[in-house]
Amino acid sequence: MAQKDDGDWMDDCRRDGGDRWSRREVFCEVRETRVRAPGGTITMEGLRNGGVSVTGWDRDSLVVRTRIRATARTRAEARSIAGQIRTVVRGSDVIVDGPRSTDDEQWSASLYAMVPRRTDLRVGTRNGPVSVDQVSGTLDLQTSNGPLSLRDLGGTVRARTTNGPLSISLAGSRWNGSGLDARTTNGPLTINVPDGYNARLEAGTTNGPVNLGFPITVVGRITRDIATDLGSGGATIRATTTNGPLTIRRK
Description:
Shape: globular
Distance between the termini: 19 Å
Low-confidence stretches: none
Helix content: under 10%
Structural class: mainly beta
């Protein structure tokens, strides 16, 4: 998900309007919720038309900004719809609830969250991007239709997208934790590797070309499946795509 600031997002949201036939008006709003970081796995699931972006920080608190976009026949009706949308932190669950959408009245909400760097996390959307940055823990991340971006993570990470690109950016000199298992079914896979990184890399594509941005050592010839030790080896970084190109490059 693009890391625009709230002001830029508000400008874009208002500029887009309700629809290209001007039959609907739009109302845009950003809200913020702050709580002490809950124990257990922080869960953000069930968003049908919106994305989730999570960034780790050095504070013992959870901050969630909800970007709301509502459309209706009039701006007053769109504002009323937005007023019925709630972001609730219930225990360790972050829940977004709102009225039922119709052909004339629709809404979407995206979450931008700051969590402690060491956090267990479960994120899921049905139609929207997911990005996680600088978080280490037991992470279960998935989206049905949307891009998946993973940057500077650690711990035990499982990530899935059905239709969308998968981007992985490793950081430091090695993976801190048991490893990464990431997959996209339909979409390109890009892995950014720092110079001097140490890991067991297992990557592949079923239907797509392979592009290598730096030399790697493999047993036998290079195929669509690559298994190699980077540097002195280490935790396993496993990432695959079924239908899409695989690109491995220096960060």
